[in-house]
Amino acid sequence: MKLFPTVSTLVTAPSTIQKLAIRLLGTAPASKTPLRLVTGDHCTLCVHFKKQLDFYLEKSNRIAEFDIAEVDIKSDESLKETFKYDIPVLLSNDKVVLKHRFSSILFERFLPPKPSES
């Protein structure tokens, strides 16, 4: 009696791998939430904001949930007009999540609930 599937069974049956991943992770893999971080050249606040965001996502084990794109404010005229004096700005679907300084408390209000671990 085999307790574990053989390697060839795992390789040839993607549904087995998906079921195993769901069992180990507790949920099916979800799509990443797109975020845009609007920054500028020589912006020390932007550097600190990005470091704090990265640190928070790694520490809270949520880095895989987001697809973060860093955008230079000069690359888009509408961003430049809208956020001229407000960088850094973190956007989700063109809505402001955070600006100026990173706050884990405010960012957590934006986050969807973390899947429960069992």
UniProtKB/TrEMBL annotation:
It comes from the Eukaryota. This is Glutaredoxin-like protein. The keyword Electron transport applies. The keyword Transport applies. Keywords: Electron transport, Transport. Belongs to the glutaredoxin family. Signal peptide: none annotated.
